[in-house]
């Protein structure tokens, strides 16, 4: 393999000193606001040649308001590696608006200028927060990266957005991507380190966003090329700076016309890139690029948080393993006597295929390992390689040649010294894992030198090249190595039989037992007092002994059911959905299908669960006796909502039942409903009795809520007016589902909903013009139209669909009164915010109509 040291090559600097891309202009000023450098194309903007501008005051060319804005932004600059942005600036005082970026470069202030996007202003930065909210719902790093690629593509419109992760050697792998459906996938492909050399990676670490709008655009020189000292203007932090011709040729060889990259930083180091490709020129406004950069920073934070969560989970498992192993040897014995049990415990934290214990010259093994004689030779090697710390490799044969004899049984090892001298070990082994690595071109192909001597020429082939790797196991991760180091300390304690550890553990167990006894005594007394209160207060509503027994018994049963639910969860937070369904099943079994729960499920702390059980018990029994569930038509809708501070709002509404009259007196049940949550949980309660049905609103403080979860579709009880998925089958899903929505976040949400309902071909557009192109192309079988599209409405699209007989529904932020008259009277309308339930119901009404 031929290699070239990039640092010694005559490689043009990555930032191409002295040239910028032609879609903007650049000025630099000294600290006394004298112009030092001017991009050559500034003559079009300022009406003066660059030579005539250099050395003159900036006030001669910039309006006073623009100078004020620039000075203000310079005041808040965070440092030499930060950039401040200013939008919609009247730069010349002639009414023309520009977007600008300003940063410090050495002793100069650098001002980059671009035309402001015309038409309606789009605050793309406001999209970032809901995009990040959706990323937070990811349950794995893979899902997080895929979601990030998808959302960035939705924001920017690139044909391909990839999450590109760097390896330790500088090579990269595409671990996630989002495509427009018309371009090839790069997911899973590896790229050699030479594709993004070290200089470029260092620049990505400083300047987090890089964009090329058109690889065929000419670049513009800066005048003068150097300052009086002969130094060029440092454009490292410039967004307009031109890129190396080598990189331009690289993109052309891939067929890419426009690109953008957003750096993914992890603890100050470059973890990877959000890499974007487009196969035609694509110009992004400054606001979109600013939003993309902000999105990249938040994504990097979530990525680090997710990786930290996994590491903490592994650390917690290591701590549990420590406690488990120490408890086993607390009564005596040795490590090897319980080796099989120890091996099983270790495997739950650090997966392996074989394990060897080598303590005091004794050999014990399980699984796929070398033989005792072979390991004896390996142990002498370990005495020099990893005598006092954890040592690991995924290819032992590469560093210890005798291991090649047993490579079929073990290719990788993780060694844990368990004595103070290099003698005793616990060693974990992993078997060989033959892997095929797909490279975008042969990484071992000799680098071709260009016509200019030692100047690199970018490779021209990106065909898949597969490499088979043998003699290697699955790598040991950093988290597994850290867990092994913690395990090593534990094993040292086990081997040394620290008697004081067992003593401390026994003392701790005694203290915990005392605390549990005291807590049990406290809870029993509370329960007895509660039952005594129920017995005393329930006398008011009972006309006979049987009535009294029924009332008291039902309330005690409600408490018992709640207590069972909590104890089944080991006294951990429990589902409010389950509590409501339990009460409905107990007292409204014949009408349980008319009890609908909506909103996120709340996991309620055990201390508040029994209180809520009594409240819902009284509400359910009251509805069955006197309210909506007392006849065959009434319904009960319970809506759960999460407050901004993490509190829980519970909205109980009854409808279509008997006419309701306010009670003339307050019984014990009413007291429970109205006063229990405020008195015991510090929340609030409001109960009203309109004629159409009882309404109650409760607020539970955040400290009683452990978390909120998205319920599965089965947890929502369907009502008669909401069709099942099967009811939607037929011609609607056979064609194109057109989504007309100018907010990209909402549009993607609608796409997810429609795909969940069986629509396979969804097309998203954000304007009337784009929508009409899809409609005129034919094949549209259903459409969902946002009423308001900025300056326009979707009425022309609706009229065109009406003429073609294509069914559609409206979405509106104005309520259902929007576009309900005239030709569109009777078209279903879903009101923002809406979800799958509302869309499903609207389509059901559409089909019935």
Based on the model shown, name its key terms:
849 residues; Beta-Lactamase; Heat Shock Protein 90
Describe this structure in words.
With 849 residues, the protein is α+β, with helices and mostly antiparallel strands. Among the domains are: 19-115, 2-Layer Sandwich (Beta-Lactamase), CATH 3.30.450; 332-434 and 471-496, PHY domain (Beta-Lactamase); 570-715, Heat Shock Protein 90 (2-Layer Sandwich); 725-848, Rossmann fold, CATH 3.40.50.2300. Helices cover 37% and strands 23% of the residues. It has 21 helices and 35 strands. The strands form eight sheets. Strands 1-11-3-2-6-5-4 form a seven-stranded antiparallel β-sheet, sandwiched between helices. Strands 9-8-7-13-12-10 form a six-stranded antiparallel β-sheet. The chain has a five-stranded antiparallel β-sheet with strand order 15-14-18-17-16, with helices on both faces. Strand 2 (25-29) and strand 3 form a beta hairpin. The longest helix has 44 residues, at 286-329. It starts with 18 loop residues before the first strand and ends with a helix. Mean pLDDT is 78; it is low at 1-15, 436-443, 449-462, 464-468, 498-502, 519-526 and 715-726.
Specify the CATH homologous superfamily of the domain at 570-715.
Answer: Histidine kinase-like ATPase, C-terminal domain
The percent of residues in helical segments reads: 25-40%
CATH fold title of the domain at 570-715: Heat Shock Protein 90
Report strand %: 15-25%
CATH class of the domain at 570-715: Alpha Beta
Determine the mean pLDDT. 78
Termini separation (Å)?
A: 71 Å
Main β-sheet, spatial strand arrangement: 1-11-3-2-6-5-4
Number of distinct beta strands: 35
**Which class do the helix and strand fractions yield?**
alpha+beta
Sheet with the most strands, sense and barrel status:
7 strands, antiparallel
Q: Segments where pLDDT lies below 50 for 5+ residues?
A: 1-15, 436-443, 449-462, 464-468, 498-502, 519-526, 715-726
